[in-house]
Design brief:
InterPro entries: DUF2252. The chain is an alpha+beta fold. About 45% of the residues lie in helices and about 15% in strands. It contains 18 helices and twelve strands.
């Protein structure tokens, strides 16, 4: 985006505080500390679910107060699709519940929403196809077990959706937890800090490991081929048309996709100047060759459906195109009337910066156009990234038992690798070790919590029926 050198709108630099994961001890000392914590928080305590009293519908409605009212019927339809869809879209419920559970409170940078559906394919800066965590709206510094608990519950809910019996699902969870333990052990007992940092999530690396114990889901190669076709040119072909004057514009699909007002267009144009100050100099130079051709509000996802999300069509001086996605960055752990504060909560910095910072830590490589900005007038935060750009995901409903088991293990591997970027994860490794009691404890907790999700889901469905009768 061509910009002037006017710096009157330059955002204040607010740096996400990472001091909670910085520690001046050796890996050996950190692992030893983790073993000591077993005496303070036993595996049995970790695996005991504590029911929490809260108003499910009230919590959801509070979140939706900050969203676009016209999109709520579609959002509710998405949440009502299944128990797993409901679970995916209501992370605030589990966040509140987790804040009341027994935890070791060992801090690492966490995804905050590490369910099975939040892993996927995307492009590296070198145009290599990667597979990794790909959703960071809830990312923060937090206790490591929040991520692994959410992953396990998602395994149960998706496994039920696939028709697997409880014993089969427990076996999948066992393999997932053992993989998490194994990878953490390798990270801190066999690999150096630099080796942990340079771990590859490139799809070709995974494909090459098919000869080993890491057999990949059969759909992997098909997804790889599909993802490589998802680029800006494909976006332009799918999402745009020519107007009466022959100008390229986005297609409308109300209420999901609608053009913004002239006022909003100019606001976003101005704010993107601040965004360019959050990316590296080479990206700033790249974007200087583009101008904005069109902007639409375009809602995606389940939990974030209804937030302020936009697509920006950019045209370069050579006539090529780029599509950026702008997503509203909401405050993490939001729940009306209840305190979801953790020992690691921060009131600053900007939520867009929090998301970008945590994503760059957890992912081995991130979108080079990833950045953020803050709208001081509205008080809203946003983060920016390329739209599509080889982004793809596996259809979980198409997996058989073998592929589902393997996929869950791959997610656990990547979660452990992401956690291991925080030096404090060595404490986690000392705590979890390779103990069978740890595995059994968290399986028990996940099964108990999954029952709570079903209760919450039914309560939500009942509220929708009630609202329809009133209408």
């Amino acid at each position: 985006m061509a910009t002037s050198h006017d710096t009157t709108n330059t955002p204040t630099k607010l740096h996400y505080d990472l001091s909670k994961i910085n520690i001046s001890k050796s890996v050996h000392e950190l692992i030893a500390r983790g073993k000591e914590i077993r005496d303070e928080v036993s595996f049995e305590q970790l695996g005991t679910f504590k029911p929490v009293k809260r108003n499910v519908v009230q919590g959801i409605r509070h979140v939706e107060q900050k969203m676009i009212a016209d999109l709520m019927p579609l959002r509710h339809k998405r949440l009502a699709a299944s128990a797993f869809a409901f679970f995916r879209g209501t992370d605030e419920l589990m966040a509140f519940d987790l804040s009341k559970q027994t935890s070791t409170n060992i801090p690492v940078v966490i995804s905050g929403d590490a369910h099975l559906g939040n892993f996927g394919f995307y492009a590296s800066p070198e145009r290599k196809l990667l597979f990794d965590l790909n959703d960071f709206d809830e990312s923060t510094i937090g206790s490591w077990d929040w991520d692994i608990r959410r992953l396990l519950v998602s395994i149960i809910l998706q496994g039920e959706q696939l028709g697997f019996d409880p014993e089969q699902i427990n076996i999948v969870m066992q393999g997932t937890l053992e993989t998490y333990q194994q990878i953490l052990s390798e990270c801190f007992e066999a690999h150096s800090a630099m080796e942990r940092y340079y771990f590859s999530t490139e799809v070709e690396t995974f494909l090459q490991s098919e000869e080993s114990n890491h057999k990949l889901p059969k759909v992997w190669r098909k997804i790889r081929d599909s993802a490589e076709q998802r680029n800006s040119d494909k976006v332009v072909k799918k999402f745009t048309t020519l107007d009466s004057r022959g100008h390229l514009i986005f297609k409308e699909n109300a209420p999901r996709t609608v053009h913004v007002s002239d006022k909003r267009f100019n606001e976003i144009k101005d704010h993107l100047k601040n965004y360019t100050q959050s990316v590296s100099p080479d990206v700033t130079v790249l974007l200087s060759q583009f101008h904005i051709s069109d902007i639409v509000r375009h809602s995606v996802g389940v939990g974030s459906f209804g937030t302020r999300c936009y697509l920006v069509l950019l045209t370069a001086i050579d006539g090529s195109h780029l599509v950026l996605q702008i997503k509203e960055a909401l405050q993490t752990r939001r729940f009306r009337g209840f305190d979801v504060t953790t020992p690691f909560s921060q009131s600053q910095p900007d939520n867009g910066e929090r998301i970008v910072t945590c994503q760059q830590i957890l992912q081995r490589a991130s979108d080079p156009l990833l950045g953020f900005y803050h709208n001081a007038d509205s008080g809203r935060s946003y983060y920016v990234r390329q739209f599509w750009d080889m982004k793809e995901s596996i259809n979980l409903d198409k997996l058989d038992e073998e592929d589902f088991t393997t996929y869950a293990k791959i997610c656990a591997l990547l979660l452990a690798r992401g956690h291991a970027q925080s030096p404090t994860a060595a404490i986690v490794q000392g705590y979890v070790g390779k103990k069978k009691k740890f595995v059994n404890a968290l399986i028990n907790w996940a099964n108990d919590y999954a029952k709570q999700v079903h209760v919450d889901y039914q309560e939500f469905l009942t509220s929708l029926d009630t609202d329809e009768k009133k209408a």
